[in-house]
Structure formats: C-alpha cells, structure tokens
Amino acid sequence: MTKKITGKQALGAAAIGSAAIAAALLYANKRKEKKTETPAPPSGEQPETD
C-alpha cells in the first residue's frame, strides 16, 4: 500500500514545509524582540506609592 510520491507532490510538500519553517522563525523573532524591550526610564520624580 505504499504510494510513490511524484515530482509535483514533492515540490508541493517542500513549499509547504519551507513556508511553515519561515513562519515559525518570524514568530520566534517577534516574541524575542518583545521580551527584550525595556520600559522607559523614570523622569526623576519619585513614584507614588502607598
């Protein structure tokens, strides 16, 4: 019951696989950038605390 993969099917599978990898890398880089952002430094005023 094994089916031979033709050239068109192989190209389609490669295209889908490479698109998935590219999307995963973009998502990972986007999350990494958000994580490393630092808040703006305080303006010199004392923070209001209770």
List the helices and strands and how they pair.
Layout: H1 7-36
3D architecture notes:
Helix content is 60%, strand content 0%. With 50 residues, the chain is mostly helical. The N and C termini lie far apart (73 Å). The model has no long low-confidence stretch (mean pLDDT 77).
Descriptive terms for the model:
single chain; 50 residues; mainly alpha; 1 helix; 0% strand
Question: Helix count?
Answer: 1
Characterize the main sheet.
Answer: none
Strand content: under 5%
Q: Tell me the distance between the termini.
A: 73 Å
pLDDT under 50 segments (min length 5)?
none
Q: State the helical fraction.
A: 55-70%
| C-alpha Rg (nearest Å) | 24 Å
Give the integer mean of the pLDDT values. 77
The structure class reads mainly alpha
Order of helices and strands: H
The coarse silhouette is: rod-shaped
Total strands: the figure is 0
In short:
The protein has about 50 residues and is mainly α. Helices cover about 60% and strands about 0% of the residues.
